[in-house]
Design goal:
111 residues, alpha+beta, five-stranded mixed sheet, 42% helix, 23% strand
Length: 111
Amino acid sequence: MADPTPKQILEEDIPSVLKAKPELAKDINAIIHFVVSGPNGGTWTLDCTKTEGWVSTGANGTPKLTVQVGDADFGKIRAKSLNPQMAAMTGKLKLKPMDMGLATKLVKLLA
């Protein structure tokens, strides 16, 4: 099975997880921009300050965290074939600013 695309992860998977576990959105309680490079890339906003409609396309609002990642690496992280910590340490995943507390909460959502 192919790794999921960033569009699938952000527009389908994450909203499904948040509907099933709304406490994750409350725990994150921040706006996060995902800037995904590559042919399947794009920019999405995850707004966990809301109770629904968490994901939108484009950079909306002022983010507490910006995640930069390649489309293939993002798919591998979601498919659990690439460890997010290893991706960050090798520069495949960049978090600005480096907020480990928020990053840890985000991993719970993506895992």
